[in-house]
Design brief:
With 307 residues, the chain is of the alpha+beta class. The protein has three domains: 8-17 and 42-131, Tetratricopeptide repeat domain (Serine Threonine Protein Phosphatase 5, Tetratricopeptide repeat), CATH 1.25.40.10; 132-209, Carboxypeptidase-like, regulatory domain (Immunoglobulin-like); 212-303, Carboxypeptidase-like, regulatory domain (Immunoglobulin-like, Sandwich). Helix content is 26%, strand content 34%. It has seven helices and 18 strands. Strands 12, 13, 14, 16 and 17 form a five-stranded antiparallel beta sheet that branches. Strands 5-4-7-8 form a four-stranded antiparallel beta sheet. Strands 10, 11, 15 and 18 form a four-stranded mixed beta sheet that branches.
């Protein structure tokens, strides 16, 4: 994708908007009270362009303004704009805000194209020039690796892999570790250097997120609804009862409503005196709504069954 760039004495990689992409203005919000109350979405292309404009002033006032706009780019999309990280690192470095500069340079190295060796050298040089002796490192090992993302103060520092030790200024950072279909981990971590010289590390296992679907069971005989029928749904795991999940029991009535269940496989059973037992495996998928219509057949009298 082509882009236009400006290079200043500060050696900012001022990458402006991709040609033919960001010049169009966003569509106006719909005229409604809800739309007026809703905060406008951040346009990262426009924010990047503003950051580049202020950085091009090449003075402290412009750099301070640029910091805000580069930060908004990363707030909107912490992955797709590596030069926002690089430029943010350079303007913070020029402002002598070395902790913020080092974090931004680390973010660039995490999301940039490895083939862009020149900019990678620029980021590593910025880290070396800003890092003070004795600064600690932060490392995070987390599972699952698939879809894994590790953010530190909103800066993407690792994707699809553990966070190898990265040098940061001593202090507190908000760390977010997330993966698709798992409960995200958020914690304020105090990054310090231990007496033995080691840094701060964490080992995490993200919990799988529970999703839900709905099922509505209707029981009848010869087209006439049956009320007061008890339905049981036993969660299954690998075609065996799941000992960690409770059995769901519900009573069918005239005002019965769909029941919400965690996604997965269930063994549904309906057993009522005078009717044949009815069973089926039911699959509940995410955000699904399914209706199960059961027509129970009369069972033979016990005297006849005994013969």
């Amino acid at each position: 994708m082509s882009s236009r760039a400006m290079f200043l004495p500060l050696t900012l990689a001022l990458v402006a908007l991709p040609l033919g992409v960001a010049s169009a203005k966003p569509e106006p919000a719909k005229s409604s009270k809800a739309a007026k109350k809703k905060k406008p979405e951040i346009n990262p292309y426009a924010e990047l362009d503003k950051g580049n404009k202020y950085a091009s002033w090449n003075n402290s006032g412009g750099f301070k303004r640029a910091v805000k706009h580069y930060g908004r780019v990363l707030q909107a999309d912490p992955v797709s704009f590596p030069y926002a990280y690089l430029n943010l690192g350079e303007v913070n470095k020029a402002l002598k805000r070395c902790p913020a500069a080092v974090l931004a340079f680390q973010g660039y190295l995490a999301v940039s194209d490895p083939s862009d060796e020149g900019s990678a050298k620029q980021a590593r040089r910025g880290i070396r020039e800003c890092t003070l002796a004795g600064w600690p490192t932060l490392s995070i090992s987390a599972r699952p690796l698939e879809g894994l993302e590790i953010l530190v103060d909103g800066h993407m520092l690792s994707r699809g892999a553990d966070l190898a030790p990265v040098t940061l200024a001593p202090g507190s950072y908000e760390v977010v570790v997330r993966a698709s279909e798992h409960v995200p981990f958020t914690e304020t971590i105090n990054v310090v250097r231990a007496a033995d010289g080691s840094g701060t590390s964490r080992t995490l296992q993200l919990d799988r997120q529970t999703f839900f679907g709905q099922v509505d069971v209707n029981v009848s005989h010869d087209g006439k609804p049956l009320e007061g029928v008890t339905v049981t749904l036993e969660p299954k795991k690998l075609d065996k009862p799941d000992p960690d999940a409770p059995i769901v029991s519900l009573t069918i009535g005239a005002d019965s409503k769909p029941v919400e269940l965690a996604t997965g496989k269930y063994f549904l059973e309906i057993e009522i005196e005078g009717y044949r037992r009815w069973i089926r495996n039911v699959y509940i998928s995410r955000d699904s709504e399914q209706s199960i219509d059961v027509n129970l057949a009369r069972s033979l009298p016990s005297a006849l069954r005994a013969d």
